[in-house]
Amino acid sequence: MKKITDLQGTFALNNGVEIPYLGLGTYLADNDQDVVDAVKTALNLGYRHIDTAAIYKNEEGVGKGIRQSNVAREEVFLVSKVWNADQGYESTLKAFEASLERLGVEYLDLYLIHWPVAGKYKDTWRAMEKLYREKRIRAIGVSNFLRHHLEDLLETAEIVPMVNQMEFHPYLVQQDLIDFCNDKGVQYESWSPFMHGKVFDAKSDVFDGLTGKYNKSIAQIILRYNLQKGIVVIPKSIHENRIKSNADIFDFELTHSDINYLDSLDKGERTGPDPDNFDF
């Protein structure tokens, strides 16, 4: 396991591309000055990984934030995703071009299939393989794919996905899926590490012992837990103090027993949609 060292540390994807293991998520960040400032703030603090998606409707603001930062485009690991309504071969190619135009960039570092739309994701993947071969994207992957979706995709895929971005937190570990991805060389990535804020509510006294032991917040404990499990994580915030606090996780290390304790909280609790049962 690679040592977790600093904000610009990376994990290597199966094609050799390095992905910064801590990034800024932009889900629910409006396409206005808030997302521009959040991206600019994160990059100027040292973040090098920015995650957006077509459905977030904030790609213009994300692109503007990158341009207004003190960081060159080639130093930023920029991620977007093809939305469900745009899946299919030709429509994915068009959706990709539209995302580039909104972002104001010439390439993406990672492009993901947002959800496993039945009957479409294989054609979507073929389009992404084409874009990858043309070097329009440095890495391609999927999001919200369970094991059976991955197995189905791998039956015809010429390129193994480099990433699978999933809901992940101590109440939804899905260790079998993590193990499967690791076995196939697919980097696991976490969205909603804080369960849309639910980990901070009253029931979260289960974290009290850890926050006291390490003198860190619940958020910092959970983010460190992600990284020590080898999982890329992209906490979302538009607030400078939280963006800064989320990056203050490199001066401590969870013990194996504490990681096992956090794993043991798993109860299959989703805050987002079920990849086997969504209707959008």
UniProtKB/TrEMBL annotation:
Question: What InterPro entries does its record include?
Answer: AKR, AKR5G, Aldo/ket_reductase_CS, NAD(P)_OxRdtase_dom_sf, NADP_OxRdtase_dom
Location of the active site = Y56 (proton donor)
Tell me the protein's name: Aldo/keto reductase related to diketogulonate reductase
The UniProt record lists the keyword Oxidoreductase? yes
Family annotation (PANTHER family): 2,5-DIKETO-D-GLUCONIC ACID REDUCTASE (PTHR43827), NADP-DEPENDENT OXIDOREDUCTASE DOMAIN-CONTAINING PROTEIN (PTHR43827:SF3)
Q: Which UniProt keywords apply?
A: NADP, Oxidoreductase
Family under the similarity heading: Belongs to the aldo/keto reductase family.
Which major enzyme category is it?
Answer: oxidoreductase
One molecular function GO term is:
oxidoreductase activity, acting on the CH-OH group of donors, NAD or NADP as acceptor
Enzyme nomenclature, EC number? 1.-.-.-
Q: Where is the NADP-dependent oxidoreductase domain?
A: 22-266
Q: Which organism is it from?
A: Zobellia galactanivorans (strain DSM 12802 / CCUG 47099 / CIP 106680 / NCIMB 13871 / Dsij)
Q: Cite the SUPFAM superfamilies for this sequence.
A: NAD(P)-linked oxidoreductase
> Which residues of the sequence carry a binding annotation for substrate?
H114
Which Pfam families does the entry mention? Aldo_ket_red
Residues marked Lowers pKa of active site Tyr (site): K81
